[in-house]
From TrEMBL:
Biological source species: Lactococcus hircilactis
Gene: glgP
Keyword Metal-binding: no
Enzyme class: transferase
Protein name according to UniProt: Alpha-1,4 glucan phosphorylase
Alphabetized PROSITE patterns for the sequence: PHOSPHORYLASE
One Gene Ontology term, aspect cellular component: cytoplasm
NCBIfam families on file: P_ylase (TIGR02093)
InterPro entries: Glycg_phsphrylas, Glyco_trans_35, Pyridoxal_P_attach_site
Keywords of the record: Allosteric enzyme, Carbohydrate metabolism, Glycosyltransferase, Pyridoxal phosphate, Transferase
PTM sites of type N6-(pyridoxal phosphate)lysine: 647
The protein's Enzyme Commission number: 2.4.1.1
Length: 799
């Protein structure tokens, strides 16, 4: 949009006065933030309205992204950037004596997601708007987002995240578009007099779902999409006396809290309730919209609407759409089923079996009696149809209802026309191993969509210094099309470019060093290698492998005080699920090891370890630009894709990583020599599984370095871990090291040495860093979302 500095200043001052009856001199920071956000909202509202009108009139097909999590982070700068007014506003504010960043910092992170899956959903929302793809988000407006993490005595402590306490300037509550969602009670089928069976209900619990729309502003275009988040309320007509307080409380609880979990399924009733809540509300809204504005017969739904099931959490989309078509629109089963399968598509985000969602049949039956009937019928018909075609074995292994449980992945695959993994390796494993039986039955449904990142946030917003260097080197086209960074390759021998890349990195490291000084009280040398591992804490991600290597370096320094090691700062950020005991023990161990090393005078600046508390999107925006090295060290086959790996690459960090998830594609893109690869590959891992011949204790006993490091966990070397040390020690020795940490240790150490050697040659390192940036184009989520739009949803970009 067009905006002059003068106009902006007028708008801003006026808004302060109309909103708060105050002038700039007297306004506090929160008032400035609120006024600024409100001005920005006014700027995009017109575009939003016009785009809505365009969508109504053109009647083009739209996609709906159903996700129980979104993780947008802060919105202010992203909205300013996308509106094309970031610089104007920054300068205007500066004229008024206000620093934009000091205000922007105050916005709470919108953290209604756990990790990669939620963040991916938000990258997709950003990229869809920016590429003109009509994509509507659909989720839950949790009053409390993911817990805030504090570190007390080295332990993780969880605090509530009341992100809405100062209001949310971006959302629009649409009470007129509320829908009811019902739970429990009894359902039976009755002849309606025409021979047709209709469901009758008794004693149902009713909940009102109220939508809050949050605009997703496209980058310098005319698209503004919508992310609809549902809040649960008590229906207005309910006569609520004090006896019903409990009911009120329960209703409010529905959208109160995000379940803090990652890669671990946790079968709590309230969670199943949440899943049905936003699925039912979202589908009701889209059907109503379809009927009233598209005004085509319901049987043509699949020509106008595509619904995406992001992981299995929204899998109830399948039976709920069936319910609406059959019970509310009188469509015959077969026809309803064909429509449903055409409309639905599904993404799988994990192969970890403990993460696969299954619900006890009894739970589904009592909470969602009609949905349960429909699932039973889907399962019954499919079984009858396929038995003669594929045989009992395949039918059984792929059944939705098995062993008294409803298998949500099975429901999602069977009820949709597309199942995709999130990186090549992951999609291959789904086809060849984890979902092989489904692949045999429905080969045409399987496909890959390698993840991507909303590159503008991770460069233009998070790393302005690097962005300026890139502009000056290859022009500005990369800001619209990340593939343009390929032009950088022509500059890889250009000393001036390399020096400017180094200078930008140094500035970003200074910024992080300041943050660390202020928040951790640790002084770190910005000339040291900044080696970063930031992601949720999980055994399969192997933060522990990183820790063992740190201990190796520590003992090397202790043994040989004059040893020539390049100074390193190891930086961690990780939340553990509150109930994941082992992960919390690792956090404690990292913090105690950090204390031990950082305060050891023998170590000095050679080695520092920093645990940054409360890792979230806005922390990532400070940490990742400052990284020299990104740690992507999961056991091969376990990390479906990873997305921080792409953010590091974009910011010129080199990856040390296994051949897992999207690392493989990053390695191919960056080129040999620009990526430190180590460890078992997926075939070797599977070979161990087949033979059952992995023996971690042998490694402990035969490798003196490993032996000494592991002993440090139990012999008092590392202080204050008398409970956690033995637990970790035993997980590796007695319990045979589930994720092959010890098996990959030596090769990891070797790769770390290679990395250090390259870093000592500053020119060679910076060249490798440049090669990473130059080849990151593929990992823009603009590319990913276009692939979804073309190949799965069949929706067109706005021209
Ligand atoms: C959240 C809740 C439950 Cl119950 C289960 C899983 C999660 C979750 O957050 N999963 C998650 O983040 N998965 C990650 O998805 C990313 C995006 O596709 C992948 O890059 C990453 O490999 C995968 O672990």
């Amino acid at each position: 949009m067009k905006l002059t500095k003068k106009q902006f200043k007028q708008d801003f001052e006026k808004r302060l006065s109309t909103k708060f009856a105050i002038d700039i001199e007297k306004a506090g920071p929160q008032e400035k933030l609120a006024a600024l956000s409100s001005v920005v909202k006014a700027y995009y509202s017109k575009i939003w309205q016009e785009d809505n009108e365009y969508k109504y009139e053109s009647k083009k097909k739209q996609a709906y992204y159903f996700s129980v999590e979104f993780l947008p982070g802060k919105m202010l700068k992203s909205n300013l950037l996308n509106l094309g007014i970031l610089d104007t506003v920054r300068e205007g504010l500066a004229d008024l004596g206000i620093e934009l960043d000091s205000i922007a910092r105050l916005e709470p992170d919108m953290a209604i997601g756990n990790g990669g899956l939620g963040r991916l959903a938000s990258c997709f929302m950003d990229s869809a708007a920016s590429t003109g793809i009509p994509l509507n988000g659909n989720g839950i407006r949790y009053s409390y987002g993911l817990f805030k993490q504090k570190i007390v005595d080295g332990y993780q402590v969880e605090l509530p995240d009341a992100w809405l306490s100062n209001g949310n300037p971006w959302e629009v509550r649409r009470s007129d578009k509320a829908f009811e969602v019902t739970f429990g009670g009894e359902v039976w089928l009755e002849d309606d007099g025409t021979g047709k069976l209709r469901p009758k209900y008794r004693n149902q619990e009713r909940v009102l779902a109220v939508p809050y729309d949050t605009p997703m502003v496209g980058f310098e275009n005319t698209t503004v999409n919508n992310m609809c988040l549902w809040k649960s309320e008590v229906p207005k007509d309910l006569d609520l006396q004090f006896q019903n307080l409990d009911y009120m409380r329960q209703t409010a609880m529905l959208s109160a809290e995000l379940y803090p979990d990652n890669s671990n399924y946790d079968g709590r009733l309230l969670r199943l309730k949440q899943e049905y809540f936003f699925v039912s509300a979202g589908l009701q809204r889209l059907i109503k919209h379809y009927v009233s504005t598209i005004q085509r017969p319901i049987t043509h739904l699949a020509d106008y609407v595509s619904v995406h099931i992001n992981d299995t959490h929204p899998a109830l989309c399948v039976p709920e759409l069936m319910r609406i078509l059959i019970d509310e629109y009188d469509i015959a089963w077969e026809r309803a089923w064909n429509i449903t399968v055409k409309v639905m598509s599904y993404t799988n985000h994990t192969i970890l079996s403990e993460a696969l969602e299954k619900w006890p049949e009894e739970m589904v039956k009592s909470l969602l009696p009609r949905i349960y009937q429909i699932i039973l019928e889907i399962d019954r018909r499919r079984t009858a149809e396929l038995l003669p075609k594929v045989g009992a074995k395949l039918v059984h292994s792929t059944r939705i209802i098995k062993d008294g449980q409803v298998h949500m992945a099975n429901l999602s695959i069977i009820g949709s026309h597309s199942t995709n993994g999130v990186a090549k390796l992951h999609s291959d494993l789904l086809k060849d191993v984890e979902l092989h039986d489904f692949y045999l039955i429905y080969p045409e449904r399987f496909n890959n969509k390698t993840n991507g990142i909303a590159d503008r946030r991770w460069s233009q917003i998070a790393n302005e210094r690097l962005s300026t260097v890139l502009d000056e080197t290859v022009g500005k086209a990369w800001r619209h099309n990340l593939n343009e960074l390929k032009l950088l390759e022509a500059h890889k021998n250009d000393t001036n470019t390399l020096e400017r890349l180094q200078a930008a990195k140094f500035d970003d490291k200074l910024r992080l060093a300041d943050y660390i000084k202020e928040n951790n009280g640790i002084t770190v040398d910005p000339n040291a290698i900044f080696d970063v591992q930031v992601k949720r804490l999980h055994a399969y991600k192997r933060q522990l492998l990183n820790v063992l290597h740190i201990l190796k370096l520590y003992f090397d320094i202790k043994d040989q005080p004059d040893i020539d090691v390049y100074p390193r700062v190891f930086i961690f950020g990780a939340k553990a699920a509150p109930g994941y005991h082992y992960a919390k023990s690792i956090i404690k161990a990292i913090n105690e090891i950090a204390n031990m090393i950082n305060n050891d005078p023998d170590v000095g600046n050679k080695l520092k370890v920093v645990f940054i508390a409360n890792y979230n999107v806005s922390k990532a925006e400070i940490i990742i630009p400052a990284a020299n090295v990104g740690e992507q060290i999961s056991l091969a086959s376990k990390e479906a894709s990873g997305t921080s790996n792409m953010k590091f690459m974009l910011n010129g960090a080199l990856t040390i990583g296994t051949l897992d998830g999207a690392n493989i594609e990053i390695f191919e893109a960056a080129g040999k020599g620009n990526f430190f690869k180590f460890g078992l590959d997926k075939d070797e891992v599977y070979e161990y599984y087949r033979n059952g011949n992995y023996n971690a204790r042998d490694i402990y006993e035969q490798n003196p370095v490993v032996h000494r490091i592991l002993d440090a966990f139990v012999d008092g070397t590392i202080p204050n871990i008398s409970a956690e040390g033995p637990e970790i020690f035993e997980s590796l020795t007695t319990y045979n090291d589930e994720y092959f940490v010890l098996r990959d240790f030596n090769d990891y150490v070797r790769a770390q040495k290679d990395l250090e050697t390259l870093y000592k040659d500053r020119t060679a390192w910076t060249k490798a860093s440049l090669m990473n940036i130059a080849n990151v184009g593929k990992f823009s989520s603009d590319r990913t979302i276009k692939e979804y739009a073309d190949a799965i949803w069949h929706v067109e970009e706005k021209k």
